[in-house]
Amino acid sequence: MVAQGILFFIAGYDTTSAALTHAIYFLSLHPECQQKLYEELKTCDEFTYEKLVHLKYLNAVINETLRLAPSFLRLFRVCVEDYPLGNTDSQINSITIPAGTFMTVSTYTLHRDPKYWDNPNDFLPERWIQPKHHPYAYMPFGGGPRYNHPGVYPDSPGFEPPTYGYS
Ligand code: HEM
């Protein structure tokens, strides 16, 4: 119980404070976004969970902040079965990740990959109003079959938990 309690403090404190610090930083660089967010916040009469999750621009700002500056820069996994990489299936170039291999996924790199994001290095909260990204191109809270992160707003507009299978 104590270990779980400590984990919650470590996992919950630095990640949240880094996210808030980065959000304020990006807003300071983009006063037009700051103004838009201010206008939206003025429409909210009480800052409860139920009301906050429906503030589209606030959630867009948070999602965009975590895209450009994910609090965890990478995820860690162990490969459970031999996994041939999809684009290396010719006999000459075939690469298979053997079961038991320790893997890391750089979310920082993925979140800025031009293959998945237009203007990847720009702070554009608007992209989250009607998001069209691949779910596995955005994983600030992790992803995969046991995805159930305690810090996530499940009903937040624009946030699509990446819960479907691998491909
Ligand atoms: C902006 C805020 C946060 C971010 C970006 C964040 C990010 C992450 C990431 C990337 C992981 C690894 C997930 C994976 O490997 O699939 C993780 C795990 C975890 N986080 Fe957070 N986190 C945040 C806030 C919180 C808060 C507020 C709590 C609790 C109060 C929390 C508790 C945990 C716990 C317990 C784990 C381990 C889950 C497991 O292994 O099953 N996090 N977090």
Automatic annotation (TrEMBL):
Sorted alphabetically, which InterPro entries does this protein's record hold? Cyt_P450, Cyt_P450_E_grp-I, Cyt_P450_sf, Insect_CytP450_Detox
Where it mainly occurs, coarsely classed, is endoplasmic reticulum
| Places the protein is found | Endoplasmic reticulum membrane; Microsome membrane
Topology in the lipid bilayer is annotated as: Peripheral membrane protein
SUPFAM superfamilies in UniProt? Cytochrome P450
Question: What keywords is this UniProt entry annotated with?
Answer: Endoplasmic reticulum, Heme, Iron, Membrane, Metal-binding, Microsome, Monooxygenase, Oxidoreductase
Q: Which cofactor does it need?
A: heme
* GO CC, one annotated term: endoplasmic reticulum membrane
MF-aspect GO terms: heme binding; iron ion binding; monooxygenase activity; oxidoreductase activity, acting on paired donors, with incorporation or reduction of molecular oxygen
Name a Pfam family for this protein: p450
The family note in this entry says: Belongs to the cytochrome P450 family.
Question: What is the protein's given name?
Answer: Cytochrome P450
Organism per entry: Oppiella nova
